[in-house]
Amino acid sequence: MPDFALLAVFIPTFFFVSITPGMCMTLAMTLGMSIGVRRTLWMMLGELVGVALVATAAVMGVASIMLNYPEVFQVFKWVGGIYLGYIGVQMWRARGKITLPSDTDTNPRASNLTLITQGFITAIANPKGWAFMVSLLPPFINAERDVAPQLLALLSIIMVTEFVSMLAYASGGKSLRIFLSRGDNIRWLNRIAGSLMIGVGIWLAVS
Description:
Elements: H1 4-19, H2 23-34, H3 37-68, H4 70-93, H5 112-124, H6 127-136, H7 147-181, H8 185-206
Helix pairs in contact: 1-7, 1-8, 2-3, 2-7, 3-4, 3-5, 3-6, 3-7, 4-6, 4-8
């Protein structure tokens, strides 16, 4: 298990980043309104598998660098910290608009396999998702402990957070869409998540 102090930083950071409207969340909301929450669960299954694959690859790849090339990992920490800070600044500057998938992406007659594939591809084809996982997850892995239990704990948190967030978007439907479209609600979500990202980036660079 990771240190509780690290989890106290990781959980709120990932929660606010996850709950902020993005490709997967807006897809869940749109599918929830067009085909229902129950069928949207198939898309969520594919998305969770994709996120787990991305997170596992990110942690294992960087953990290998951490153990075999500690000097390179120090440089990587600085680059990762700067990148997280950059993401945080971009989230602060974001205008906060919702980009909804096209009608062809929300075909109510789509098969369960199609929905699973759609969620999986959405998760693994997002370069920002890969960069985010590579930058954020490794700092929460302690090289002096077994990697597997720590990875399992972080993956469990990620899976639960992602599922709860997508379920909230799928269930919220039109009411949630109106809420997110009103005023600066999305902008404030972006700013909270962006502030946490900047903080984690600074902590990563100086730790």
